[in-house]
Amino acid sequence: MPQITFLDTYRDIIEFPTISAFDEKWDMTNRPLIDYLATRLSDFGFDISIQNVPGARNKYNMLAKFGSGEGGLLLAGHSDTVPFDEGRWTQDPFVLRQADERLYGLGTCDMKGFFAFILEALQTIPLKQLKKPLYVLATADEETSMAGARFFAQQQLIKPDMAIIGEPTELKAISRHKGHMAHTLTAEGQAGHSSDPARGVNAIEILHQAIGQLLTLKQQLHDQYRDDDFSVPYATLNLGHIHGGDGENRICGHCQLSFDLRPVPALPDEDAIRLIDEALKPVHSHYPGRLSRALMYPTAPAFACRNEHGLVELAEQLTGQPVGSANYATEGPFINQLGCDTLILGPGSIEQAHQPDEFIDLHYVDPTVTLLRNMVKHVCA
Ligand SMILES: [Zn+2]
């Protein structure tokens, strides 16, 4: 097989635009990158399966497998990027540029570049000697709905012992993060002339009661869902946006609030939603049929690494750093559902993610390739 250099691979990967966005005008298929990774990994002897992700706009996951049997190691990452800020990049985001010991381009850091690190590490791993399977997973739509990882977890196709998600963590393993969910609360009142309040139902007053209940819940989350691993050491609830009414001389007929909740790992999404609905019960009794709650998009659950196979100790040993926690959400909770020990651990810094002129420092190359090689050796050989 002709050797393709690390920089050539990186250049190829950055050249495929794979933007994910809720807005259809920005949203792109990731298929060309998926096909590229499939070809490159099949050249190493991996078996490839590509799956269309249901409910997404022409998006695909790719699973590559080397070897057979139980357990093994999964190296996972997302194939998509966020949109780029037009006018704020000083270069073409899809053309890899090397300068100042850095690689610039959209997805260099978060996190398409991780696949270039994997392909580089594979050049030096004696794959034929592995006793347990090695998997590489590229998912779709992490930056929006996480539909790719959600779908992959539902299928339960594989059960590795350990998984690494190569998000940019400066090569320090992340074992926990909070989740995120967002809700809208809609109050349907009955509009009328303000001179006689009895002739209508004021939607702002309905939401006023609801907000009182949510603030009580906010305090309850603060008191009952503490977690000192996080810099904000409790589950949070934030009232984010409110709109209602059309004039001071009318009874407000319609009012809508959006709020978010960030659960700690001890608070599963279903329980958080149940707490919200219980908090709102008195408002429903007072105003039957006038208040409704809806999720704005699928929840991103909180994440805590299970450690049944010793991944935490292995990562601490190989990186020389203790595992920590993060403030951002990842695909960790979904990969966790495969039943494997899962850590977020990769090159580059979150500081450069989602930024114009995104880059990765080249000083990550050697330690990352060494880390991946050692990880495969410890888990699969
Ligand atoms: Zn990412």
UniProtKB/TrEMBL annotation:
State the needed cofactors, names only: Zn(2+)
> What keyword terms does UniProt attach to this protein?
Amino-acid biosynthesis, Arginine biosynthesis, Cobalt, Cytoplasm, Hydrolase, Metal-binding, Zinc
Q: What is its EC number?
A: 3.5.1.16
Main EC class the enzyme belongs to: hydrolase
The record's section on SUPFAM superfamilies has:
Bacterial exopeptidase dimerisation domain, Zn-dependent exopeptidases
Question: Per the record's keyword annotation, is Disulfide bond included, yes or no?
Answer: no
Gene3D superfamilies assigned: 3.30.70.360, Zn peptidases
Show where the Peptidase M20 dimerisation domain sits. 177-285
MF terms from GO for this chain are:
acetylornithine deacetylase activity
InterPro entries given in the database record: AcOrn-deacetyl, ArgE/DapE_CS, Bact_exopeptidase_dim_dom, Peptidase_M20, Peptidase_M20_dimer, Peptidase_M20A
Matching entries from Pfam families are given as: M20_dimer, Peptidase_M20
Family under the similarity heading: Belongs to the peptidase M20A family. ArgE subfamily.
Name of the featured protein: Acetylornithine deacetylase
Q: What gene codes for this chain? A: argE
